[in-house]
Automatic annotation (TrEMBL):
Composition-biased stretches (Polar residues): 50-60
Pfam families listed in its UniProt record: DDE_Tnp_IS66, DUF6444
Residue ranges of every copy of the Transposase IS66 central domain listed in the record: 171-434
Protein known as: IS66 family transposase
DUF6444 domain sequence ranges: 28-90
Entries under InterPro entries matching the protein: DUF6444 (IPR045618), Transposase-related (IPR052344), Transposase_IS66_central (IPR004291)
Annotated segments matching region Disordered: 47-88
Origin superkingdom: Bacteria
């Protein structure tokens, strides 16, 4: 009996111990899972804290104070021109471009002889020195007088009428074009434009006049901007990017589409894909962009993913730990070799050699992405990044097979840079009409810059044609 009782007590104790151990094991598993989750969260937060323009798409202006400035290391050379450097002097204008010529003759010789007028016979060409200066008053004032006449026949009084081109404004096309150039190209505030016009041109301009001129020119650019949109849509290769905008303080978006010579900018409600589709219309172009989801409606064969963005993404991964660090370092090595191959192609134009180099890089990168995109990889961010690149795999290498396509989207980012600076200085727009107008003005400015032409001279042509009801010149 006692033995049975002892065995029963033993069985009960064993069951209690097993139950306790099972509960402890479950608790340990929960704690281990929580520790893993916390480790992942800490790693993500630490890396988010370390984000900068060097490892993400955020602009350098948003870098925190702890990020050191981009400073090149010392070259070991003295500042300035180096020994053997061929200097570049100021080139002289042709004689036809000179407004005034002043001649200087020597008064005498070192031997003591003073030259008489008959001795002054030029030998060879003169030594030339040109001085460029602004006139005392840059603006000219033309008064248009409409006289009254009494008809000898009926006695009615009649007055002369101003031509429509003259009556349109109290400012001429050149001065109006200068106002727009200062506002859009140089991004000067309305009040500063008024001050500069008074000090530089001795011209009377008000803040309201500046707004009126900007609206007039923007409305005159409707047809040229429609033509720009058609040219971009019909191009074989287009760079696209988007950035933020403000409308009365609210969030908006500015989209930009760029070819080698043309730019079109549009302001929309958001950065969603419906606006990208509307901007592209029926375009069949290859689109170079970042990996923003609004471009995912495009077939991968018609896309080129920006490798500058990928390089920053790989740098972000390389700042992680363990397998993420391995992924980042492997990706950075591929980026370095890819840009070296592209630089060599720019020099030689040997596309078969470029494609051979790219095939080698593909063989190096794809196994790394497959390894880090597998289900067993613990860190989700690196896993998702790798899988995303595998899904976009053909779009990583379009530049190697398609002429006119580059491996980066730097062209679009440079095209939007002026608009971004304008937005920061002006805080965006205050009306929908203002949005449409500044988009047209920025499109014209960016296109002129890409074509190497003067925005001021082009706007003079636009204003002259508009005042005379003539076709406005296009930005072909």
């Amino acid at each position: 009996m006692e033995r049975q009782d002892a065995e029963a007590i033993y069985e009960q104790g064993r069951d209690v111990v097993v139950a306790v151990l099972m509960r402890l094991d479950e608790q340990v598993q929960r704690l281990e899972k929580r520790v893993i989750q916390q480790d992942e969260r800490i790693a993500v937060l630490e890396r988010q804290l370390g984000r900068s323009s060097r490892n993400s798409s955020q602009p350098p202006s948003a870098d925190p104070p702890r990020v050191p400035p981009r400073v090149k290391g010392p070259s070991g050379r003295a500042p300035g021109g180096q020994p053997g450097h061929e200097g570049k002097g100021r080139s002289l204008l042709e004689a036809a471009a000179v407004d005034e010529v002043v001649d200087y003759w020597p008064a005498g010789c070192g031997c003591g002889r003073l030259f008489a007028p008959g001795d002054l016979v030029a030998v060879g060409g003169p030594a030339r020195h040109q001085v460029e200066e602004l006139p005392v008053m840059a603006v000219t004032v033309t008064e248009h007088r409409c006289h009254h006449v009494i008809c000898p026949g009926c006695g009615a009084q009649r007055r002369g009428e101003l031509p429509a081109a003259v009556a349109a404004s109290a400012l001429g096309p050149r001065l109006q074009a200068a106002v727009v150039t200062l506002s859009v190209r140089n991004r000067i505030s309305r009040r500063d434009v008024v001050e500069l016009c008074e000090q530089l041109f001795n011209a009377r301009v008000s803040v309201g006049t500046v707004d009126t001129i900007l609206a007039r020119v923007a409305d005159a650019l409707i047809v040229p901007c429609e033509d720009l949109l058609d040219r971009v849509r019909s191009a074989s290769a287009v760079n696209m990017d988007e950035t933020g905008w403000r409308l009365r303080g609210g969030q908006r978006a500015m989209w930009g589409a760029f070819t080698e010579r043309h730019a079109i900018l549009q302001i929309t409600a958001s950065r969603h894909d419906d606006h990208a589709k509307e901007l592209l219309g029926g375009s069949r172009a290859i689109i170079t962009s970042d990996r923003w989801w609004a471009y995912n409606h495009l077939p991968v064969r018609r896309r080129q993913i920006c490798w500058s963005h990928l390089q920053r993404d790989f740098a972000f991964q390389a700042e992680g730990r363990g397998i993420e660090k391995q992924l980042g370092e492997a990706g950075l090595a591929v980026c370095a070799d890819l840009f070296a191959a592209w630089a060599a192609f720019q020099q030689t134009g040997d596309r078969p050699e470029l494609q051979r180099q790219i095939r080698l890089l593909q063989r190096r990168l794809k196994p790394v992405l497959r390894e880090h995109g597998g289900k067993k990889v613990r860190y989700r961010q690196g896993r998702g990044f790798s899988r995303g690149l595998l899904n976009l795999w053909p779009a990583l290498w379009t530049f190697a097979r398609q002429p006119g396509v580059t491996p980066t989207n730097n062209h679009a980012e440079r095209g939007l840079r002026g608009a971004v600076i304008y937005r920061k200085l002006s805080f965006g727009s205050q009306s929908e009409n203002g949005e449409a107008r500044i988009a047209r003005l920025l499109s014209a400015h960016t296109t002129c810059r890409m074509q190497g032409r003067s925005l001021h001279e082009y706007l003079i042509q636009v204003l002259h044609a508009n005042a005379h009801s003539e076709p406005v010149p296009l930005l072909a």
